[in-house]
Records
---
Amino acid sequence: MTIEEIKQKVASKEYNFLRENEHLGKNIILLGLGGSHAYGTNTESSDLDVRGIAVNRKEEILSNIRFEQFVNEETDTTIYSFNKIIALLSNCNPNTIEILGLKPEHYLYINSVGKELLNNSHMFLSKKCVQSFGGYANSQLRRLDNKAVRLVGQAERENHILNSIKNAFATFPDKYFPFKDGDIKLYIDKAVQEDYDTEIFMDVNLKHYPLRDYKSMWSEMNNIVKDYSKIGKRNKHAIEHEKLGKHMMHLVRLFYTCFDILENERIVTYRKEEHDLLMDIRNGKYLDDNRQPIPEFFELVDELEKRLDYDKVNTSLPDKPDYKRINDFAISVNERIVKGEL
């Protein structure tokens, strides 16, 4: 489907909700492609995904009326409210930050406020992308078959689990009672469990720490470990529907998008340079005869994780986004709406 064909489709009656819904219509500031068409990994059978942003109306800004997003499942369309997407972008949320990095021709509609947002996209970039993209990538990794992970060795599998836990661990200071660096240490050492070569250990040195917060942290880490034992059942469904290669492709794509943010301080959604690799993964080159990931795929992921570890130490990006600039921009837009200037 060409861009012109996509534009004609979006202009059809099927998408009339974009023009008729009270939250959308003239409130839309940006409309663009999402999913495989945006990444450059689409095939002839790929569905069309549309993503967009709509400013909040005056009454929503000044009252308790809430509008966060509009979803039309029949057309795979999601429109975020301006105020909600500002919060998501500030956390470098992968599903939303990619909207700011589309190819120019992939924007189906954009007005002056939408252009302002794109021109100021750098203010959202920070080291937060390491946790947001890394955590999302690891959630994709946990969808893959633990049998395949074992093929590269139990020790490597334990490393995958530890990386997933570390991504979750990095979010704990924002959610739970604070603790000092080194109070909780996670590492891999020689196993005490039978049939294990190595395993994950914890050193904990907490005093006067809220029990419920500790329980919540423990539950998050425990759930990640449990996820690896559930992957086989989940993967059976994915294999039956030929989706496993797609999960694997998105895992790798997330890493490369994050590398562009950390190394080049830019958002690049369309993955031109990695296109052939991504399509090979999607089309099953890294699956065995039983449609399971082969060891070479996990070796690739290991290399990507090492690059991410290097980037998070050596990037020039700040630890946090430019909150003052972000807030000033959000205030400016909302103020203009209230005054009737938009």
---
Amino acid sequence: MSTWFMFMFQESNSYYADNLISFHNMVMMIIIMISTLTVYIIMDLFLNKFSNLFLLKNHNIEIIWTVIPIIILLIICFPSLKILYLIDEIVNPFFSVKSIGHQWYW
């Protein structure tokens, strides 16, 4: 049931919605970790006076910032595809709901 100032999803009635909610929570945790790490690195660069101004190339850093996003995208991709193909199968639904929305022109 939806309540006032509710910041999360409602309780779900189906297995599919549970999967979607858990996937959403996983992706949000990844986004929060990436944002926190980015803010920390930016603040560290601004507050730290020991930065290397003569660094022209570093292959190890380039490999790291290429491989880590690929790994993160794969971590997001596989559960997403699993849920996508799971939702695509329709197994004897007990009922179906048709909802119609109308826009108010004020």
---
Amino acid sequence: MIGLALILAMQAAPQPQPQPNIENTPAPWPDHERELGMVDAYTTDSDSMARRTMSAFAACVVEGSTDKASALLLSDFRANSYRSGIQTMIRNNDHCARKVGLQGRLKMANLSFAGALAEALMKQRAAPLNAQLARAAASPAAQTYSFTDSVAMCVARSAPDQVAALFATTPGSAEETTAINVLATPAALCAQAAKARKPLSISPAGLRAMLATASFRSVASMKEV
């Protein structure tokens, strides 16, 4: 997998614009609050086909369990109930696994699956996603639960067009890489605003999922348009 490390700004003073650094291995997820919440310490679903299969699986799950998926993603991902809820949702949807052609159980990182659920839920909404994100940004931000979550919420609120463009790409595609590169600057500015104490290395799958879960909570805080 081609991992993308976003080296985010470390000081409040103006910094040179960061450039994405291409790596050849998945990058660690250094958000201890998320690790304690048993969401993801590492993003392991690095194969593009596996990510696409997971997206199809999540879309099937959302089709049959929209309310349950929505309620779960609106809850605090640090709680044990969130972790168990994610795993229960995976176990209870074997028919979706068969539908997407899985021969056995698809191993999924919690954050990555939650991100796929969030994208599927946002696709059900009527208005264009960039318009929804922009409208949500005009209201108080939805609650966040960790440092990286607050950075993701900031990016979703400050760059709605670019974030929506990311979700319009296929996981693992060249278009996804381009969309992620475009988000390097707003991500760095949001990390700087949040007073990041150290660089954050985030894989493409991890960044997309992080933005998806934050974006879903942001638009879900608004009424349907």
